Structures are given as structure tokens and as C-alpha cells.
Amino acid sequence: MSLIDRYIQEVGRHLPRNNRADIKAELRSSVVDTLEDRFGPEPSETEVEGFLIEFGQPREVAASYFPDGQYLIGPSLYPLFRMIAWIVVAAVLGAQLLAWGVAIFIAGEPFSVLEMVGSLLNSIPVSLGWLVLTFVILQRFDVQPDLGDETWDPQTLPKINEDEDLKRGELIFGLVFGTLILALVFFFPQWIGSVTYPGGKFYPNPVIIQYLGWIKISLLAGIGLNIFLLWQGRRSAISRWVKIAENLFSIFVLALLVQGHNVWLAARGSFDFLGTIEAIAGIADGGWELVGMHAFRMAFGVALIVVVIETLVMAYRMVRGKVQARTIAVLPPASA
């Protein structure tokens, strides 16, 4: 076998199987024609060797037939992979924390740092491994995100507005936290309540059970909006209005929960602040359940106030932006 045959064979080892034969034939023709043009029809072995050294190593020549490069996960899929990878890591950490909290404070299991670290070292690589495998399969079948085929126009670039920029960390945290809470209310609603001490008596929250359907819808709406914003990469007027609508629904659900706790506590004679003090004083007589329900009511009340303020601020900014835009539009042009 000649030196050229050996060279073409080695290049072929690094080529994709489906078009290997065609590329080898094309490469052989190119090498032979170039050698004849440079050294005539009968080049010496020394001339062939020097030319092949100049032509390049077989692996590098094979790589030149991959104009988009050789990747497990290519550039078009990598941004999506990176975003989902952070979500997966955060979700695994959150799920582990939730599981440890339930095991320690409800089931009363012993606390072990080594077991927690070992669990994380096992679960995170496994989860990321499955994610990488999924994207490798997508890359293998050339699945690409739909980025649109329209001709790119620089005039369509969004204006610089820091208010439109996303804080991805906050969105990912909200997405993971919402997903964990959704999993809890879907599969383990009986775990939602208060506990006296690790391993002590557990009191489920009947008000949350009563409004479980509304809570699920609210959580799904928030998760869906966060996923959409992460995919878009920035806020828009439409997404802001959708966020305001989602907040209004959350306010409705939180108001239901606060009122439900008010009714529950009033039925047991422990509605106001003095009732809370009496509940704390009567812990030895079973007042822990009342304390837990007061804590839930306070938490939902604080959340309600925060969401109301956030919604009002968002609505104010939207209206202010529209007013400023109209004012600028009607102003007469400056005289030269």
C-alpha cells in the first residue's frame, strides 16, 4: 500500500461513516492532482512525504470536513443546555433540602452531614449525566432550536433598557422553588403543616388542603411564566402584563388562604393577637397547633402584602412608561 493510500485510510478513520467513502474519493483526487501539478506524474516518495507533511495531519484534515466543528453539544444547543443545567442543579439541591427537612423535622431521623454530602455527590452528577446524554442525542439528530428563518435586520435590535433585563438567578430560584412546592402539594399535601419539634407531633394544615386546587393553578402559572422568560431572555410589554395578571391571581389565592386561616382560628377562639399570646401560653395543653396556624396565616399575610406592592410598582412603571412615550411623541421638534 502506497504512502498516499495509507494517508487517505488514516484520514477516513476520523470521518463520519455515512459519507466517508465520498470524502475519501474526493480527498484522493485532490492529493493526486496536486502532486502531479507540482512534481509531475511520477513523484518520488520523498516528495510525497514532504507534500503530505505540508498537507496536514490526518486528524486535522478530517476535522476540516466538519465546518461546524465536532461537538457533543454544539453552539446552537449549548445556551439552552447551560440554562437547563443550572435549573437541574438547583432543583436537585432544593429537592435534597426538602427531603432532609422532612426526614429530620417530621420523621425524626438522625442528622448526618456525610450522608447529605454523599447524596449530593451521587445525585448531581447522575442528573447532569442524563441531561448531557439527552442533548448529545439531540445533537446527533441535528435538532435545533427554532430561532426563526427571517432575514436579520439590525433595526429590530431591542433598545437598551436595564428595566427589561432579566435576573436569571432570581428566575431560576423562583422556578426551582415553585417546582418543589408544586411537587409537594401534588404528591405530599399531607406533609404540609407544623411540627412541635424534630420527631414530635405533626399537625397538618387543613386550610391548605381546602384550597389545594387554587394553589396548584397559581404555582403552574408562575412556573410557566418563569420558563417563558428564561427562554426569551428579556422582558417585554406583553410579559409584564402577563406577570401582572399572574400576580393578581396570586393575590386572590393568598387572600383565600389568609381568610381561610382567619375562619379556622376564629372557630377555635384564637383569632386576634391576644389569642396568639394565649395559644403560646397554652402550649403544654396542645396549643402548638394554634401557634402553627397563626404562623401560616402570618406568612401568607406577608406574602400577600409583598405581591400587592410588587404588582402596584409594576403597574406604575408600565403606566409611567406609556405616558412618557406619548409625551415625547407629541413634543415639537427642537428648532435648529
Summarize the topology:
Elements: H1 3-13, H2 20-39, H3 45-55, H4 58-63, H5 78-106, H6 113-140, H7 168-187, E1 193-195, E2 202-204, H8 206-210, H9 212-232, H10 237-267, H11 273-281, H12 288-330
Antiparallel strand pairs: 1-2
Helix pairs in contact: 1-2, 5-6, 5-7, 7-9, 9-10, 10-12
Which terms summarize this structure?
single chain, 336 residues, mainly alpha
Structural notes for this entry:
- The protein has helices spanning 3-13, 20-39, 45-55, 58-63, 78-106, 113-140, 168-187, 206-210, 212-232, 237-267, 273-281, 288-330, and strands spanning 193-195, 202-204.
- It is mostly helical and 336 residues long.
- The relative contact order is 0.06.
- The model has no long low-confidence stretch (mean pLDDT 77).
How many strands appear in the DSSP assignment? Answer: 2
Main sheet specs = 2 strands, antiparallel
Radius of gyration: 32 Å
Residue fraction in strands: under 5%
End-to-end distance:
82 Å
User: Helicity, in percent?
Assistant: 55-70%
Category by helix and strand content: mainly alpha
Tell me, rounded to a whole number, the average pLDDT: 77
Uncertain parts: none
